[in-house]
Design goal:
alpha/beta; Spore Coat Polysaccharide Biosynthesis Protein SpsA, Chain A; 9-stranded parallel β-sheet; 6-stranded mixed β-sheet; 20 strands; 30% helix; 17% strand; globular
Length: 500
């Protein structure tokens, strides 16, 4: 019996050769709507009974009997863990033992079509000299990790969906295998899929979505650590590949309007209008500001239908009375023919003013406020509910102030990003040396001290003479300088001690 990895090498499969993983979820019913001729197909468990595939991945021994002759007819090879699951739980018999008593497996073995690999759930020994493939909840995780470990770098999925339902093609299994592992939802697989994408760098995502998800960030060079933490927080949860682009690095010049009242309020206010051009006026794009942090998978947001609109923005939560927010937007780049030169020309000619441009987004043809308010939560975080936290209060943003009550959430992701090698300690030091970060932040990451409101007074003193970049800009404009934020940090720290 041959290992999957030996077989994979013998097939001379290149990293760029695309794979398609087929699961039993509702989107499997759309298989015939796609051209899948260029993909190598790998099926999960019972899916092999529905169509011919190159590889049938069978994690549960029970599936062999359930699919019977289809395993012989519909696949090139069958790959199973060396210790397969039984009744949706870790088994105790090796594949070799099972093949000795199971006619289908025995025949596959004789024909050289039965492959094995080590699965992390094995309670018995694994076979030495071969990688151990991780899985936590569902077989989609194991199949994805199996391919990524073998060297595949382009992997799409269909029928690997959230929720708690199968495609109609598999309704007969609903009473026997649907969530039989006692999990409440297939959503739980997405966290592990996100981890695999983040740690391996594979290009992965649903076949019926644009991949990678293109995220454009409004920012300045002084905010680049915030951008990196934002990017990490997106990738931490995203069950599809993501591409993040800081807009201030775009190779398109932004002209300055003639009239002072029409000029941008921040250095990046107008950069969002570059996005359709940067995207080649095709597909979709997500715009966010740099002072944000993500707590949920952007998969649902990225795939949200436009339904005739060319721009989606966040719906206001009830009667807030605040102006429309366009700091989180999903753009149809094919429909938006934005040109920054023409937009500024309209400002100069009086056909448009700043309010209409930034608060009404007049250059868009049709806008729908269809995005859940959880995707733009202003200075509020509710565990399990908040999808995106927006640090709108500039003086208390966690990278420049130690007095943000939610700062521990941001520092936590920064520390995780450093631990994973996504951000280096040297990068943080360099940003601090340039005055982009408060000095006390270095103490926090070195000691894993997440909550800045409990920092020792001697550490907070390091921030006393720190002047944040936005204050320096205000000073250059002649604005009256307020007291150094470090002094306020110490007051905040003292008050906290009194009331704790």
């Amino acid at each position: 019996m041959k290992s999957f990895f030996d077989w994979y090498r013998e097939q001379s499969i290149g990293p760029a050769d695309p794979w398609l993983i087929l699961g039993k979820g509702p989107s499997f019913s759309r298989l015939n709507q796609h051209d899948i001729g260029r993909y190598r197909l790998i099926s999960l468990n019972h899916v092999v009974r529905e169509r011919r595939v190159d590889v049938a991945h069978v994690i549960d021994a029970d599936v062999v009997e359930a699919c019977g002759e289809k395993l012989l007819e519909n696949t090139g090879v069958v790959v199973m863990p060396w210790v397969p699951h039984a009744d949706n739980h870790a088994g105790d018999r090796t594949l070799e033992d099972l093949a000795a008593s199971q006619p289908i497996l025995s025949r596959l073995g004789r024909e050289g079509r039965l492959l094995w690999y080590n699965l992390s759930t094995a309670r018995r020994r694994v076979r030495s000299g071969s990688p151990v493939v991780g899985v936590r909840f569902f077989s989609a995780e194991a199949a994805l990790n199996l391919l990524a470990t073998a060297g595949a770098r382009r992997i799409r999925t269909l029928g690997i969906d959230g929720g708690a339902a199968y495609s109609a093609r598999f309704q007969d299994l609903s009473d026997t295998t649907l969530l039989a592992n006692t999990r409440t939802s297939f959503d739980e697989q997405f966290h592990e899929i996100a981890r695999t994408i983040r740690t391996t760098g594979i290009l992965c995502g649903p076949l019926d979505m644009e991949v990678p998800a293109r995220v454009y960030v409004g920012t300045t060079e002084a905010q680049m650590l915030a951008v990196k933490v934002l990017e990490f927080s997106i990738r931490k949860h995203a069950s599809l590949s993501v591409e993040v682009f800081p807009l201030h690095r775009a190779p398109i010049p932004v002209p300055m309007p003639v009239h002072q009242g029409n000029r941008p309020r921040t250095p990046f206010s107008f950069h969002r209008f570059l996005i359709p051009s940067l995207a080649g006026h095709r597909g979709r794009a997500l715009y966010v500001d740099s002072d944000m942090q993500v707590f949920k998978d952007i998969r649902g947001l990225w795939g949200q239908p436009f339904d005739g609109a060319d721009l989606l923005t966040v719906a206001e939560p009830g009667e807030t009375g605040r102006r429309p927010q366009f700091s989180v937007m999903l753009l149809d780049c094919g429909a938006l023919r934005w040109d920054i030169q023409a937009i500024v020309a309209d400002l100069d000619a009086g056909r448009l003013d700043y309010e209409q441009l930034m608060y009404e987004m007049r250059p868009a043809r049709q806008i729908r406020a269809a995005i859940d308010p959880a995707w733009n939560s202003l200075e509020r975080h509710e565990e399990g509910r908040t999808a995106l936290l927006h640090y709108t209060d500039m003086p208390t943003q966690p990278w420049i102030s130690a007095r943000n009550p939610l700062g521990h959430l941001w520092v936590r992701d920064l520390v995780e990003a450093i631990d994973e090698g996504f951000i280096s300690r040297a990068e943080v030091q360099e940003e601090a040396d340039q005055g982009h970060l408060r000095p006390s932040l270095l103490y926090q990451i070195d000691r894993r001290h997440l909550d800045s409101t409990t920092l020792p007074a001697r550490v907070l003193e390091q921030d006393d003479h720190y002047v944040a970049p936005y204050r320096q800009m205000a000073g250059r404009r002649g604005a009256r300088r307020s007291p150094p934020p470090g002094l306020w940090d110490r007051v905040w720290h003292g008050v906290g001690r009194i009331f704790r």
